[in-house]
Amino acid sequence: MSGDDLTELQAALGYRFKDETILRRALVHASSRGEDNERLEFLGDAALGYAVSVALYQGQEQLAVGVLAESKANLVNNNRLAQIAIDLGIDRRMLIGASIQGEQQKSPKICADALEAVIGALAMDGGIEAVQQFVDEHIRPLDDQSTVIEKHAKTQLQEWAVSNGFKPPQYDVVKHESDKNGELWHVRCKVVGVKHVGKAAAPSKREAERRAAHDVLSHVASTT
Amino acid sequence: MKLNLYDSILGLFRHWGLQTRIGYRFKDLTQLDEALTHASVDRVNNERLEFLGDSVLELVVSEYLYRQYPDIDEGTLTQLKIMSVNNVHLQSVALNLGLDEQLFIGKGLYKVENRGVKMYADAVEALIGAIYIDGGLRPASKFIDKYVIQTLPTLEETQMHPKTALQNWVSKQGMEYPEYDVVQDPKRSGSTNWHVKCSIKRLAITRTASARSRKAAETAAARQILDSLGIMANGA
Description:
The complex is a heterodimer.
Chain A: H1 3-13, H2 20-26, H3 38-57, H4 65-75, H5 78-88, H6 108-139, H7 148-151, H8 153-163, E1 170-179, E2 182-190, E3 198-202, H9 205-223
Antiparallel strand pairs in A: 1-2, 2-3
Helix pairs in contact in A: 2-6, 3-4, 3-6, 5-6, 8-9
Chain B: H1 2-12, H2 16-22, H3 29-35, H4 47-68, H5 74-84, H6 87-97, H7 99-102, H8 107-110, H9 117-135, H10 137-149, H11 155-158, H12 162-172, E1 179-184, H13 186-189, E2 194-200, E3 205-211, H14 214-228
Antiparallel strand pairs in B: 1-2, 2-3
Helix pairs in contact in B: 3-9, 4-5, 4-9, 4-10, 6-9, 9-10, 12-14
């Protein structure tokens, strides 16, 4: 990889490495020759978990423990991490061995692992503060992909339905696609008596259900 | 008024002994109170601090292992990490600190004889969370290093004979040596095997194993206990 490429990546990460070799190593998949990124991934996984937990714990709202755990699982799930890795251009700069090139090259797992390895590299180069800053900028922003509120959409809808005299919502998987790029779940959410049927698609069933619930919620909220 | 003053002075010395053992003085003792309140108490309890402490523990242990063992692969690092955050190991940390005496639990639980390994393990994690919130990462790391990491067998010790590894571990935790009792002696029972029971009284753990020789049965029993502790034992 060229030096320019590394400079670009660092700009995307929002961090300048004192020691670029550690960033290079984070991009070496285990299938490749030489020292790979697995040890850094081990470290990065823990550093990421820590930074996310602390951010959630110290957030403005005092979240119940169940919500803390769910939000954390949601923020660090492999599909989401893979997406972030792709957005940052980490996947394009990875060194992958010939044995697995092509087919699974950009499997969500490989991308997510590489992001964790980059986080491990951040921890080694800039200390845990660098990781926390990175998490604040890139991981924690609760975009519409996975927010705590979204996480609660199902609960909210359930409560809304019950308190307005409806039966609990029903969720149906309409379609489930799966290929080398990952999975896509199409889910329908229906509350008997409510005209609007919620529809959504996402890489996980849970996420799709949540979005479908949100769809219904935003509809009933705008009509009531 | 007199009484209030007395109370507040007394309040300053709350958890004095425990804080001395932990090696950390809390600025805000309510954090420590929270850490010592089991989830069976239905108000503010230690679940949130446990969530936090768990992550702090994982980070500190992982970073320690990463730096301590530059040459071992990710698989072994993970195995070593699992061993250090194992619930039985954390339980023994709790007992070593006397947390069992200090834990505030819901009424229903007083009747239960074995209050469970997890309860103590959770309390240690919550305690780590409380130290972190009160004083930051540095004192939390210091605590983890002293009580969770240094009390574990080193990678070299895990290569030792199971009986030696087990003995080393219990003595690091300030506990009495494991006891080995012959449950069945082939000379008396007429069977071919020795049955030996290995027990660690403080943790109320016992394991029985059988083998052709007494020594082999003892080794097998020790190995079973190490397994339940999550400690790798590769030795004989």
